[in-house]
């Protein structure tokens, strides 16, 4: 690759020293390692356009990287150009209850900017230290998704540099196909450079009820009620193992657990008012463990101390084969209990297992595929796995991933995804021909993020 050609046209930084290349050779997953030839930190969307144009002229691959929190190398490049979009970091202006943000803006900074102005984004992911472009490219699920869908659903308009090198503004009204494939498009069709996001006003206080369930069936019945009655603004849950000892599995003895289900239900409220426990009436939890009142800004940052513990304990640096799935409601209980039973709970140490119930139809972003039905269940096995246990963990996760397909569920694509061509086709189902058409049209040279989605049988 002739890096001088890049240096001649890019106003931002063009970097290829070994240390910088090493820094971006892996992602949060720490399972895949790739070496880019060069990193470009664009200073604006025109830099991005010039890089993509040159890539097409010279047959170079271009991969887009935000904060690099993917888990299967989605944000890595092998011997190509790695476009570090964190160079695009402008916020503003605010207009019509919306904000424009560059793709490299980190959500934590956007939240700080908006809170001062009386707004918040309708959906936030647990980790705020990821980029706007990174989550809009995968979906962006949060504990308000049952009301507002994904972060991609809250994009009103975007600017994208397509894989063909065109700088285009798109929305539901304008260039609809590009709008539909770039959201949740994993950087396969172009580079998102700027996004206009819907906002909402907020109330300053939050009350969270920490409930514990010992019965997944009761939890699911309660959730369908909570979601229909819209009793709470934020809904999140976990699966937590209570170790029981060792049991036989084939020739070996493995640890096993009884699983419990912590649920956090949160209501936003105004100063001078107090929510009452009548919100819990009729719910069938095993125990009300704790009730907490905190400010909304603190609530939005509630996971930061958890991630801090992961950093301090060293688990942040371990491999993370995360597997998030979206399950049809009627098969969710059986699937979750089956998968949890097959997992030695010790394999899940250093992370957590999430449960995110949601109303069906909450998302309208076409590339975010999920099962039909009045409700769906989000379920995420999010472990940090020491290398010596990786073989077993990956084999169990890949089996659980195939089983998702069999029960009519779908994978969330930021995690550990090891799909061949057949699985990709099955994942997108009836959307697959459209995915191929969009890829051919918006990235005719096939330069964008090659390798992750297998468009052809190899
Ligand atoms: C601790 C932790 C907690 C998390 N919690 C949640 C959660 O609550 N909800 C949730 O939905 N996800 C969650 N995630 C997953 C995370 O949101 C996604 O991995 C997200 O894509 C990361 O954003 P990023 O900026 O790191 O993107 P990267 O990992 O850098 O990129 C992700 C994908 O998007 C593409 N991409 C990035 N920027 C652009 C762009 N500007 N244009 C086009 N394509 C682009 C990349 O090529 C890649 O395919 C979590 C991850 C971690 C590590």
Describe this structure in words.
- It is a single chain.
- By secondary structure, the chain is α+β, with helices and mostly antiparallel strands.
- Helix content is 29%, strand content 27%.
- The chain contains 14 helices and 17 strands.
- The strands form three sheets. The protein has an eight-stranded antiparallel β-sheet with strand order 13-10-12-11-15-16-14-17. The chain has a five-stranded antiparallel β-sheet with strand order 5-6-9-7-8. Strands 1-2-4-3 form a four-stranded mixed β-sheet, covered by helices on one side.
- It is globular and about 65 Å long.
- 46% of the residues are buried.
- The mean pLDDT is 96.
- The structure holds flavin-adenine dinucleotide (FAD).
- Flavin-adenine dinucleotide is lined by residues 27-28, 63-70, 74-75, 85, 103, 125-127, 130-131, 133-135, 137-142, 186-187, 191-192, 307, 414, 449.
The number of helical segments is 14
* Beta-strand share of residues: 25-35%
Shape: globular
**pLDDT below 50 for ≥5 consecutive residues: which ranges?**
none
Structural class: alpha+beta
Distance between the termini: 26 Å
Radius of gyration: 22 Å
Task: Give the number of DSSP strands.
Answer: 17
Report the average pLDDT across residues.
96
Bound molecules: flavin-adenine dinucleotide
Fraction of residues in H or I helices: 25-40%
Main sheet: strand order: 13-10-12-11-15-16-14-17
The biggest beta sheet reads:
8 strands, antiparallel
């Amino acid at each position: 690759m002739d890096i001088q050609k890049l240096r001649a046209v890019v106003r931002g930084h063009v970097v290829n020293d070994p240390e910088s290349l090493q820094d971006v050779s892996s992602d949060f997953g720490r399972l895949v390692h790739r070496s880019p030839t060069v990193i470009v930190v664009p200073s604006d969307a025109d830099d991005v356009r010039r890089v993509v144009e040159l890539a097409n002229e010279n047959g170079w691959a271009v991969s887009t990287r935000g904060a690099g929190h993917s888990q299967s190398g989605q944000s890595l490049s092998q011997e190509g150009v790695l476009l570090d979009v964190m160079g695009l970091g402008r916020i503003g202006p605010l207009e019509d209850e919306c904000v424009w943000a560059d793709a490299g803006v980190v959500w934590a900074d956007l939240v700080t900017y908006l809170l001062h102005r009386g707004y918040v984004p309708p959906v936030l992911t647990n980790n705020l230290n990821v980029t706007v472009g990174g989550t809009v490219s995968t979906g962006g699920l949060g504990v308000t998704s049952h009301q507002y869908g994904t972060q991609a659903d809250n994009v009103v308009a975007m600017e994208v540099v397509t894989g063909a090198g065109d700088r285009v503004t798109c929305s539901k009204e304008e260039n609809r196909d590009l709008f539909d494939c770039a959201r949740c498009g994993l950087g396969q069709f172009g580079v998102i450079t700027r996004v206009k996001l819907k906002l909402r006003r907020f109330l300053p206080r939050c009350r969270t009820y920490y409930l514990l369930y010992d019965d997944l069936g009761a939890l699911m019945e309660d959730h369908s009620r909570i979601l229909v009655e819209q009793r709470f603004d934020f809904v999140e849950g976990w699966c937590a193992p209570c170790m029981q000892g060792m049991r036989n599995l084939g020739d070996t003895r493995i640890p096993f657990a009884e699983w419990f289900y912590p649920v956090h239900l949160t209501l936003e409220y105004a100063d001078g008012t107090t929510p009452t426990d009548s919100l819990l009436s009729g719910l069938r939890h095993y125990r009300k463990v704790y009730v907490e009142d905190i400010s909304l800004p603190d609530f939005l940052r509630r996971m930061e101390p958890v991630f801090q513990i992961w950093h301090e304990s060293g688990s942040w640096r371990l491999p993370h084969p995360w597997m998030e799935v979206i399950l049809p409601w009627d098969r969710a209980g059986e699937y979750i209990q089956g998968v949890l039973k097959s997992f030695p709970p010790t394999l899940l140490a250093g992370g957590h297992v999430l449960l995110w119930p949601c109303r069906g139809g909450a998302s309208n972003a076409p590339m975010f595929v999920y099962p039909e039905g009045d409700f769906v269940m989000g379920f995420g096995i999010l472990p940090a796995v020491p290398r010596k246990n990786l073989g077993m963990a990956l084999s169990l996760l890949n089996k659980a991933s195939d089983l998702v397909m069999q029960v009519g569920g779908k994978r969330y694509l930021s995690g550990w995804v090891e799909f061949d061509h057949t699985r990709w086709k099955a994942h997108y189902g009836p959307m697959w021909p459209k995915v191929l058409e969009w890829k051919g049209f918006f990235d005719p040279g096939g330069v964008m993020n090659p390798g992750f989605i297998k468009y052809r049988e190899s």
